[in-house]
Amino acid sequence: MGNEYRAKVFKSGNSVALRLPKQLGFSEGDDVVIAPHADGSFSLWREGENAQVLMALYGSMSDGFMAEGRDETTQDPRDWTRGRGTAAA
After folding, report:
1. What is the pLDDT of residues 36-74, one digit of tens each?
2. Is residue 48 situated within a structural domain?
3. Residue 23 is assigned to a structural domain of this protein
């Protein structure tokens, strides 16, 4: 994983804030994406790094990922006659 950093959450107006250590490389004004995970943890990265994050996730999958294929999925029948409107451009 890497170095571990500790920080305290504090109140800032009607929000809570987290002061990030300078060593993490974020700068004032950076737009950040925060992705919560089911286990209560979260990931964050600069908004412009979306492609790099996606490729890192792709590369982290094991060689046997989905080696047995996917289970069969079924979908309920759809009523394609409802909601006829203008098509999206």
Report:
1. 888 888 888 777 766 666 666 666 667 776 777 777 778
2. yes
3. no
Tokens of 78: 């759809």
What is the mean predicted confidence (pLDDT) over 78-83? Answer: 79
Residue 63 lies in a domain: no
Q: Which domain holds residue 46?
A: 33-58
- Per the CB < 8 A criterion, the answer to whether 7 and 18 are in contact is yes
What is the C-alpha separation between 58 and 52, in angstroms, rounded? 10
pLDDT of residue 1 exceeding 60, the answer is no
Q: Please, what sign has the CA dihedral across residues 25, 26, 31, 34?
A: positive
C-alpha–C-alpha distance, residues 80 and 75, integer Å? 14
What's the total number of domains in the chain?
A: 1
